[in-house]
């Protein structure tokens, strides 16, 4: 009888949650949207490269309201929002725009598991767009600026001894009226610019760690030439006496190597006859990090992984070329915007996010250029597991500053509302560079990422060579594509042009840089019944209206890429794009992920010629 009553209460709770949330009606949805409930939304552990056992997901229904910035803390919230979907998205259940003079507020309660007594409690936000402040039980615990990097607060001292705890979050987002890094967001949406995203858009969660000390992060650097891996395990704060960290490397579940070092220092572990990571063989080693104090007590255990691989430039037939694991490898991939019709920046589920990557791989591509967006950590985890090379763009900001010793770039989108105040522009540049550094630091351990791209097509481009050098100094293990397309500068490892003409342009060869086509193609094919808005201009750089025409013109452009690889020293090409996005219909897949425009097997067979010896 008791179990029946409990089941009824659970059922009533689920029905109550469902009644408080439904997706915004009349919007394009993907097949995964129907599987979402407030109790089943992004439940996966959000950081696969730094995983602990004790955690609690805070995704689900939160209270929310939108009001003007000058107004005080709201006394009443207007409704429910499904976190982690942005307020503009259909899956949030809201579908409202946030204007530059608006402020978005969130509230929810939670309880701390009884087993966490004596632990420090961390409140983690994987991403909030753009400036967030957080209160716990009425006390301000911290603030953060940046749309694409995670942040955490130790909230232990703000918690009540028992009962329900309260979180309040406020968010300011200037959208396209500011100069902050924001990628393709624009108000109003049009052309190649998409619906803005505001507020929480990745997982919110709690984590229990030792109150004495815990591991904050680890920097993992493989070296295939020396057959070793370097690991720097870092504590949450400098501590004495010294704390020790043991690193255990596992292959197929069996320990093959280990090392021990004082926390915050480097250890090198020998990997005998390493199994190398590549798109054809994406092998990953498991890694366990164990933190102990002077008494030998285990304070923290973290699970991670790494891949043994090397990305470099090398000589091939007198040209600089992209090498992987000391062998030449042509990079061929899609420009991937990472936008979804129902979730905007946020995929409807982890399964949906993996689908795009797997389908790209099945089509015979070995690379994705992640275009001016940073994805959730799990996206890179799937790329690591599936074997996809990643060119990672920095989301474009619109800081207006001159080049070092040069005129400002010719192509600039959406000029800052700050006017010409140099101090403000310098502060905006400092924020951009801080967010760039965060992107590199947070995703340093991912073996799939092989190239950093600080700038795209002159959008907010400034001090290109200084910033290129800065990126290289932060991460000398990867290549730097200083600017992809148009406003090229004599620095970085790659010479990159964009060409959307029917006749694909040939990039110049360089004595010290690899030549690539960072964007080409863009062939539009609108399919009725699968358009974001049938009444708007649905366009591509060239637009056709049948699958046969699309395939014919794709093959024609691709053949030119093959010839450039054979005779012009071309190292890579990026086709625009993975999916249709809003008014752009130049994807290989429709925006709702329902129609694959060229059969997968056909594409894989076409592409195979690029990887023949």
Automatic annotation (TrEMBL):
<feature type="domain" description="Glycosyl hydrolases family 2 sugar binding">
    <location>
        <begin position="104"/>
        <end position="206"/>
    </location>
</feature>
<dbReference type="Pfam" id="PF02837">
    <property type="entry name" value="Glyco_hydro_2_N"/>
</dbReference>
<dbReference type="InterPro" id="IPR017853">
    <property type="entry name" value="GH"/>
</dbReference>
<dbReference type="InterPro" id="IPR006103">
    <property type="entry name" value="Glyco_hydro_2_cat"/>
</dbReference>
<dbReference type="Pfam" id="PF00703">
    <property type="entry name" value="Glyco_hydro_2"/>
</dbReference>
<dbReference type="InterPro" id="IPR008979">
    <property type="entry name" value="Galactose-bd-like_sf"/>
</dbReference>
<feature type="domain" description="Glycoside hydrolase family 2 catalytic">
    <location>
        <begin position="351"/>
        <end position="488"/>
    </location>
</feature>
<comment type="similarity">
    <text>Belongs to the glycosyl hydrolase 2 family.</text>
</comment>
<feature type="signal peptide">
    <location>
        <begin position="1"/>
        <end position="18"/>
    </location>
</feature>
<dbReference type="GO" id="GO:0004553">
    <property type="term" value="F:hydrolase activity, hydrolyzing O-glycosyl compounds"/>
</dbReference>
<keyword id="KW-0378">Hydrolase</keyword>
<feature type="domain" description="Glycoside hydrolase family 2 immunoglobulin-like beta-sandwich">
    <location>
        <begin position="259"/>
        <end position="309"/>
    </location>
</feature>
<dbReference type="InterPro" id="IPR006102">
    <property type="entry name" value="Ig-like_GH2"/>
</dbReference>
<dbReference type="InterPro" id="IPR013783">
    <property type="entry name" value="Ig-like_fold"/>
</dbReference>
<dbReference type="Pfam" id="PF02836">
    <property type="entry name" value="Glyco_hydro_2_C"/>
</dbReference>
<dbReference type="InterPro" id="IPR051913">
    <property type="entry name" value="GH2_Domain-Containing"/>
</dbReference>
<protein>
    <submittedName>
        <fullName>Glycoside hydrolase</fullName>
    </submittedName>
</protein>
<keyword id="KW-0326">Glycosidase</keyword>
<keyword id="KW-0732">Signal</keyword>
<dbReference type="InterPro" id="IPR036156">
    <property type="entry name" value="Beta-gal/glucu_dom_sf"/>
</dbReference>
<dbReference type="GO" id="GO:0005975">
    <property type="term" value="P:carbohydrate metabolic process"/>
</dbReference>
<dbReference type="InterPro" id="IPR006104">
    <property type="entry name" value="Glyco_hydro_2_N"/>
</dbReference>
């Amino acid at each position: 009888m008791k179990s029946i009553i409990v089941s009824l209460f659970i059922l009533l709770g689920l029905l109550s949650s469902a009644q408080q949330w439904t997706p915004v009606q009349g919007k394009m949805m993907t097949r995964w949207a129907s599987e979402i409930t407030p109790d089943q939304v992004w439940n996966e552990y959000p950081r696969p490269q730094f995983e602990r056992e004790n955690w609690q997901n805070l995704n689900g229904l939160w209270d929310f309201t939108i009001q003007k910035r000058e107004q005080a803390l709201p006394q009443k919230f207007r409704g429910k929002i499904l976190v982690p979907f942005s307020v503009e998205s259909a899956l949030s259940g809201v579908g409202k725009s946030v204007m530059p003079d608006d402020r978005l507020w969130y509230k929810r309660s939670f309880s701390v598991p009884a087993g966490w007594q004596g632990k420090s409690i961390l409140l983690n936000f994987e991403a909030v767009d753009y400036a967030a402040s957080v209160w716990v039980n009425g006390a301000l615990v911290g603030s953060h600026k940046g749309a694409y990097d995670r942040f955490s607060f130790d909230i232990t001292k703000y918690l009540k001894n028992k009962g329900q705890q309260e979180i309040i979050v406020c968010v300011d987002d200037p959208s396209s009226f500011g100069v902050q890094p924001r990628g393709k967001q624009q108000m109003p949406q049009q052309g190649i610019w998409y619906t803005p995203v505001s507020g929480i858009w990745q997982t919110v969660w709690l984590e229990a760690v030792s109150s004495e000390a815990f591991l904050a992060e680890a920097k993992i650097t493989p070296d295939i030439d020396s057959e070793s891996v370097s690991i720097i395990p870092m504590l949450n704060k400098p501590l004495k006496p010294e704390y020790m960290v043991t690193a255990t490397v596992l292959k197929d579940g069996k320990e093959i190597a280990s090392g021990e070092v004082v926390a915050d220092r480097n250890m090198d572990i020998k990997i005998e006859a390493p199994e190398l990571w590549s798109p054809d063989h994406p092998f990953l080693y498991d890694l366990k990090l164990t933190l102990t104090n002077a008494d030998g007590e285990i304070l923290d255990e973290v699970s991670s992984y790494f891949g043994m691989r090397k990305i470099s430039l090398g000589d091939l037939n007198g040209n600089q070329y992209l090498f992987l694991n000391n062998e030449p490898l042509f990079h061929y991939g899609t420009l991937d915007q990472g936008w979804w019709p129902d979730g905007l920046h946020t995929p409807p589920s982890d399964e949906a996010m993996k689908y795009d990557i797997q389908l790209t791989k099945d089509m015979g591509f070995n690379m994705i250029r992640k275009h001016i967006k940073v994805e959730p950590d799990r996206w890179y985890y799937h790329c690591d597991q599936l074997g996809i090379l990643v060119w990672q763009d920095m989301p474009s900001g619109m800081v207006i500053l001159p080049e070092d010793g040069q005129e400002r770039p010719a192509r600039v989108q959406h000029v800052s509302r700050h006017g010409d105040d140099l101090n403000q522009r310098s502060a905006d540049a400092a924020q951009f560079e801080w967010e760039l550094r965060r992107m590199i630091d947070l995703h340093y351990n991912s073996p799939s990422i092989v190239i950093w791209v600080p700038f795209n097509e002159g959008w907010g481009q400034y001090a290109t060579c200084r910033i290129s050098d800065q990126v290289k100094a932060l991460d000398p293990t990867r290549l730097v594509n200083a600017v992809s397309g148009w406003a090229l500068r004599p620095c970085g490892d790659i010479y990159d042009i964009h060409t959307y003409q029917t006749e694909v342009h040939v990039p110049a060869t360089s004595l010290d840089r690899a030549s690539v086509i960072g964007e080409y193609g863009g062939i539009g094919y609108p399919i009725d019944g699968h358009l974001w808005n049938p009444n708007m201009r649905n366009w591509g750089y060239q637009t056709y209206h049948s699958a046969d025409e699309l395939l014919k013109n794709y093959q024609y452009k691709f053949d030119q890429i093959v010839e450039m690889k054979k005779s012009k020293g071309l190292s890579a090409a990026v086709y625009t794009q993975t999916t249709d996005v809003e008014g752009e219909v130049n994807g290989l897949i429709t925006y709702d992920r329902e129609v694959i425009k060229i059969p997968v097997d056909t594409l894989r067979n076409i592409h195979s010629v690029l990887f023949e010896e």
